[in-house]
Write a structure and sequence with these properties.
The complex is a heterooctamer, with two copies of chain A (about 80 residues), two copies of chain C (about 350 residues), two copies of chain E (about 260 residues) and two copies of chain G (about 180 residues). Chain A has a two-stranded antiparallel sheet with strand order 1-4. Chain A has a two-stranded antiparallel ribbon with strand order 2-3. Chain A starts with 7 loop residues before the first strand and ends in an 8-residue tail after the last strand. In chain A, about 15% of the residues lie in helices and about 20% in strands. Chain A is α+β, with helices and mostly antiparallel strands and about 80 residues long. With about 350 residues, chain C is of the alpha/beta class. Chain C has 13 helices and 15 strands. In chain C, helix 10 crosses helix 13. With about 260 residues, chain E is an alpha/beta fold. Helices cover about 35% and strands about 15% of the residues of chain E. A seven-stranded mixed β-sheet of chain E has the order 3-2-4-5-7-6-8, sandwiched between helices. Chain G has one domain: 3-Layer(aba) Sandwich (Pyruvate-ferredoxin Oxidoreductase, domain 3). In chain G, strands 2-3-1-4-5-6 form a six-stranded mixed β-sheet, with helices on both faces. Chain G is globular and about 40 Å long. Chains F and H meet through loops of F and loops of H. Strand 9 of chain D pairs parallel with strand 3 of chain E. Bound molecules: thiamine diphosphate (2 copies), iron/sulfur cluster (6 copies) and magnesium ion (2 copies). One iron/sulfur cluster binds next to helix 1 of chain A.
Chain lengths: ~80, ~80, ~350, ~350, ~260, ~260, ~180, ~180
Amino acid sequence: MPETKKPYIEIVTDRCKGCELCISACPKDCIELDTSVVNAKGVNPAKYVGGCIGCGSCMLICPDVCIELYKEEKIQKSA
Amino acid sequence: MPETKKPYIEIVTDRCKGCELCISACPKDCIELDTSVVNAKGVNPAKYVGGCIGCGSCMLICPDVCIELYKEEKIQKSA
Amino acid sequence: MKQLMTGNDAMAEAAIQAGCRYYFGYPITPQNEFTAYMARRMPQVGGVFIQSESEIAAINMVMGAAAAGGRAMTSSSSPGISLKQEGISYIAGDQLPAVILNVMRGGPGLGNIAPAQGDYFQATRGGGHGDYRCIVLAPSTVQEGTELIQDAFDLADKYRNPVLILSDGRMGQMMEPVEFKPRPKAEMPPKDYILTGKKGRERRIIRSLYLKEPELEAWNKIIQEKLMKIEENEVRYETRMVEDADLVLIGYGTCARNSKEAMRTLREKGRKVGVFRPITLWPFPYTALSEVVKKARAALVVEMSAGQMVEDVYLAVKDTRPIFFYGRMGGQVPSATEIVQKAEKIFTEKL
Amino acid sequence: MKQLMTGNDAMAEAAIQAGCRYYFGYPITPQNEFTAYMARRMPQVGGVFIQSESEIAAINMVMGAAAAGGRAMTSSSSPGISLKQEGISYIAGDQLPAVILNVMRGGPGLGNIAPAQGDYFQATRGGGHGDYRCIVLAPSTVQEGTELIQDAFDLADKYRNPVLILSDGRMGQMMEPVEFKPRPKAEMPPKDYILTGKKGRERRIIRSLYLKEPELEAWNKIIQEKLMKIEENEVRYETRMVEDADLVLIGYGTCARNSKEAMRTLREKGRKVGVFRPITLWPFPYTALSEVVKKARAALVVEMSAGQMVEDVYLAVKDTRPIFFYGRMGGQVPSATEIVQKAEKIFTEKL
Amino acid sequence: MQTTKSHPKSLFPVSTHYCAGCGHGIAHRLIAEALDELGVQDRTIGVAPVGCAVLMYNYIDVDTIEAAHGRAPATATGLKRVRPDCIVFTYQGDGDLAAIGTAEIIHAANRGEHFTTIFLNNAIYGMTGGQMAPTTLVDQKTETTPYGRKPSNEGFPIKACEMLATLDAPYYIERVSVATPAKIRRAKKAIFKAFNYQVEERGFTFVEVISTCPTNWGMSPPDAMKWSVEHMEKVFPLGVFRDKGAEKDRTETGADK
Amino acid sequence: MQTTKSHPKSLFPVSTHYCAGCGHGIAHRLIAEALDELGVQDRTIGVAPVGCAVLMYNYIDVDTIEAAHGRAPATATGLKRVRPDCIVFTYQGDGDLAAIGTAEIIHAANRGEHFTTIFLNNAIYGMTGGQMAPTTLVDQKTETTPYGRKPSNEGFPIKACEMLATLDAPYYIERVSVATPAKIRRAKKAIFKAFNYQVEERGFTFVEVISTCPTNWGMSPPDAMKWSVEHMEKVFPLGVFRDKGAEKDRTETGADK
Amino acid sequence: MKEKIICAGFGGQGIMFLGKLVAFTMMHEDKHVTYIPSYGPEMRGGTANCNVIVSDDEIDSPMVDEADTVIVMNQPSYEKFKNSVRPGGLLIVNTSLVNPVDPPENVRLLEVPATRIANEMGNVRLANMIILGVYNKVRGLTDKQKFFDALPSFLGGKKERFIPANKEAVNKGVELYETTS
Amino acid sequence: MKEKIICAGFGGQGIMFLGKLVAFTMMHEDKHVTYIPSYGPEMRGGTANCNVIVSDDEIDSPMVDEADTVIVMNQPSYEKFKNSVRPGGLLIVNTSLVNPVDPPENVRLLEVPATRIANEMGNVRLANMIILGVYNKVRGLTDKQKFFDALPSFLGGKKERFIPANKEAVNKGVELYETTS
Ligand SMILES: Cc1ncc(C[n+]2csc(CCOP(=O)(O)OP(=O)(O)O)c2C)c(N)n1
Ligand SMILES: Cc1ncc(C[n+]2csc(CCOP(=O)(O)OP(=O)(O)O)c2C)c(N)n1
Ligand code: SF4
Ligand code: SF4
Ligand code: SF4
Ligand code: SF4
Ligand code: SF4
Ligand code: SF4
Ligand SMILES: [Mg+2]
Ligand SMILES: [Mg+2]
């Protein structure tokens, strides 16, 4: 069995409202607001900063379905 | 103590609708419909035929407040 | 075969014969026979009868059923119809078909259960909010009631608009012989708006909410254009002996019948009297009425109200001829005798 | 002292200053500031604020409070006002005082939350059932709103009749400087009908049910006579530069303001234009309007609707002068610029 | 020889419009007796429903307003808020209270409005001629359930006391019956208690009275009383559902069984 | 490397009008996922409420009708009766369902109408700018309870699940939350179950979703989530109130505590 | 022919049934008919009346202001409707419950102690059929058998058992008229 | 003087606050003022705009169709309102979120990267006050101190703590205008 790659997330930043729910839900503090950017919605969007363990919490709680989680296992349902 | 007189009831027959509830409630069969009379409401009204023990049931159940109960004791409330 | 039926029963049967399979209603006198009839018959024809928890629920069930493509209706009487006003405005705003029967009774408020015509304004001017109109039909015999309620379903589907039928306590509870004639099925536009699940087609939305003003205005214009089409095509009325009439009696529903009776008596006395009976109260027969009255010397409007349709008569006739009014309220019906007296007075004092 | 207030806030404060101590309402945009203001202020003045479970409950609470002698009111916007129609008919039928504020929005149905005037028919013709009328007041500035709502309470008490105030989303949410002037307390008839327990007097009943037709008719006649008195005494309107006008712009509320603006521009261009603004929509100023328009050559009615008040203008003006109509729907407000264009067109093409 | 007090002062000595044997008459009398005994007739305001009891004011001699169908609790709210010193009660049928007026009774109860509701449950719409009520029993035939009430189409009887007992505010909720003299005695106590709590300014009080409609049930009045005991009480168990004034809250249903 | 399926087919990939961190978005996604998993998107009809979710049809890709405020259950009744083969659901807020629409939800539930109601309880009127809802907590400040909700004037929060559970007909009633990933997982199961029961033609199903309104609560979204757990769940315990499909009926509240 | 009828009494006296039965029967005799019920101020135990018109011609107004025949079954109805009889018309009075004071002039007054006789027959509710027997006899509307034929359309199902008694009551009315006049 | 203003952007950008602050301040400068808010198609996170009129004379129509000044804070507002400026009027654009393509001719276009600067100041929500500083400077409505005096009427209680930042943002705007033009 080949070594599994680390999981990571991608954030659709133009739909992100900067609500910080993903941030407060992430057990590993992998997400923070990107204060260097103001998106078209006029807010600082969330940014992935690394360290993801693939728990899916951010994806589950994001009310705007901005987060996609990549991990090596088979596709799992969001819950 | 003087001998107590027997209780009895009086029926306001012009208000009586002949519903027979008093008849069915009386434990002593003291009341019946007076088929010889048709009152102004067009019905045979109830008639006291004797034997009252003063239980008050007829008075309690008459929806038209047609029945007055006479007994020797002090005035008692209807319930 | 003739049957002796109440207006309520007969119209309920006619609704079913018109294909109505979804009835939602709440009891109220003097329309109860209608609801009861539906309760008995719907299960027999595989239809749905629901006694709703309120008039409001009923009209919103009608809205749902119509959105799903069912031929649906509700019925009530004056106070209950007031409660349906929001729902009627929604149905009109959604452009959905619906048939609503109002068996009018004495008002305002709780009033009484006797026949009246005090809901004319509400029916023709929209008791609900916003710019819309219901098509309003007013039968005057039980037989006609059965025919108009069938037309009502067709009109509702044709225009995707609520149709109100104004009956009254008398029309609803009186019995007359009635015959149900088989009708050819009218050609109807396809129901390409109904909700059935989006399988195999574009997703559909039924709504009256257009948050952007230009969009709501555009939607309103579509509705208004439709209403203009209805005004052009659907006006109905009946005239009797108006050709040579000096005085035109104007009344709808129950009042038309008594006016006709009065007309007979007056004609017998040599008075040239005719009757104009609007059958559609909206669209109101303005043009026809104005032409009829112009040929006469005066008009007498008879209503079971303080005077509501009389405003439409004014709008039609303007200042061209004097208009008189005779109305009774509180469930009183202007009798033929009273109408004759009123007409005689006009003949002797005003003409 | 001048304060910058929204129409909703200012009218709420004015209602309290008019002695209103019982407010019952249900949130709806664009009148929410009114309800919120009442929620804050009522406890401060020892009054009662209840956010009712629905508009229907609110109007029936008003009915109860009025029956007990309280100065009571409710407010809502179009769909919510439709829901109150049964209750309003009851209040009218009971002959109870009540003040109802309608901050109109786009319709029909859910429509939108932008300003509109599509509820004119409903307000003036009674969206409810039976023969009754509400007194209908239409302010056009925030300041006037504060004054008319105070008058509304007095009129309601004076005639024991519901009074409707037609505001709109713009009137309600715009801010203008407003000053609350202390008013002398008006002399009011004694409230000899209210329910307080029968101690020391005859028992009282408040009802609109009269099962016997002659009794209900008699009760209706009393109401109708009262309404005739209101028609005689309470008509209000404003005119501006109508004396020499060729064209009279007719509008109420928000439309009157934009018409006045248009008038200025048109006058600057040398067009003789005046403005007629009905303040009471019922009783409608038929006579005054007809006189004003007769002196001019034509009238242009401006509404935020498909044309509702225009019917009253027809009833007033009849065939004596041509009547033009300019209306916007869906929450659109006819701008001064548009009115100027429309007027110019009339001047160049029709006069 | 003395007569037992049988005609309450708060009740006009007139013939009612109710059908022969209708329970409305009994309930009216119990209310009148409670008002008499509490001495509050002079400061009481009644709210009549739309239903057979719409003419209540012809019988109960207190200031009265007639509410719109189902809205009595809203009207009573307005009255009581203006006149906190008055004793305010609504009298409502099952159509009035449990169908069209569902929202109004629940929210008035939930606000804990300080009035009393007497809820006459006769499992039918009496006034309009016998249509199904929310409290109509399963399989019961009515004008609008001519084949009997079917749970699949019309659902089950709604239990008002049980539903109101899910709210925190109501102070007193009891269900009683007027089917037998013994039950009437108990009903009388409940109605008295409800009004008494109001006099004591405790909060919202509610008494459901299981009654009959011999006319629309198509039964003789005695048979109707029997039917109400045998069938209605099974679905609507009598008892106290809430009594914040009692030492111990007996919230179990069927407490008198 | 594969992406976990995060954007349901039944949900348009668009930005919603909801405020940042609003629970409506989560609830929408769970509904869309249930429809996807059951494969019923094509035969589903949604009934949008009047409330912040009035534009639901811009997000959930199914045939949709917009109901009048509070009347969604009546409209859904009409729809489902005409289209028994369709999956019909209403989505309603607490003002919509527990205030103006009290009668409609109770009676639709009581008839056991075969549709599903997703009840989003955020203890406030979101759309109209933050007025008290029937579910607003005691002492909670809103636009219309500026001094906090006082039981003496406004009564107590109404518990919809508990109230509906007094009715016999409902097939499934559960209360869930979307405040944490774990609770969301559970909420997802409940919503799936509700729709699945409908697919199986079992009867009326109801899921209350405890949510938030950061905007009108005046809190950051994470704080709002915390507040909902700490305060709302005390008053509105999560759990199954009715599950006729489960082997044993767990009617106790707070079953997941 | 044109016969306009008002029947009045209180609820429970079978006023409406009487009116409907006449209209129904005469419809099957190929007449134009109308029937209007009107419930009095109280819907329960209150008064009730109906208007029936039977005519060879089409009927415009179904309302009877001037009746050819008025049938009154109780005192309030007598007071209310005694003057609604046209000159020369017929006024049938249930003398068991009506004291016909100040009868209108120029009408034919027919006194029938219907309720008493019905009570003697064992059911006060049969008074209406006794009146029908008398009325049909006087006016000669149709063969009484036609009414008998119509009964099953009204008294179906559980009520079928009342048919014989109803017939008997009609016969009683006929008999009564024949023996008294 | 008569100054008609349209401010537009999305909810949360403080559009309404900006408009109200101008109206309120100028009312206290004894001007006639009107202020109309208008919420866009969505009430949440949607667009919002307001009309403000400040005038020496009584104001009939409070509605602004032809504005002396248009302030746009986001792209949709730019598209919607760029043509509402009167010829010779002023168009202020928040270039952080607006790309002012095809600007109308014959107007004065003022580009202010307000959101970016506000973000740099630590709170994107201060963009409105930056704009106010610029706007007031250009139009010379009144002394900026008058706006500062008005702030407590809007930012009371818990919000008081935002007053300094708001003032600072206004100053930033003034400064910006002075340095760039
Ligand atoms: C808005 C409205 N809807 C319906 C009615 C008709 N209506 C009168 S009483 C009644 C129901 C009566 O039933 P219930 O409340 O059970 O009282 P009961 O007569 O059985 O005592 C109805 C539906 C009405 N008057 N107003
Ligand atoms: C008849 C009617 N009354 C009131 C309103 C106004 N209104 C719109 S949404 C709403 C309440 C929204 O609250 P809720 O149902 O809790 O939904 P949320 O926005 O919180 O999700 C109200 C009162 C309306 N549109 N129609
Ligand atoms: S999947 Fe889990 S660990 Fe990875 S970023 Fe999201 S919340 Fe953090
Ligand atoms: S939860 Fe979603 S919307 Fe909120 S900050 Fe994270 S990615 Fe953005
Ligand atoms: S008091 Fe009792 S015993 Fe006497 S008559 Fe009445 S029921 Fe019979
Ligand atoms: S209970 Fe009353 S009304 Fe009934 S029969 Fe007896 S006395 Fe008459
Ligand atoms: S109809 Fe029923 S409830 Fe009404 S009075 Fe008669 S028996 Fe009583
Ligand atoms: S107002 Fe509240 S409920 Fe509505 S979208 Fe915003 S956060 Fe959500
Ligand atoms: Mg009942
Ligand atoms: Mg909510």
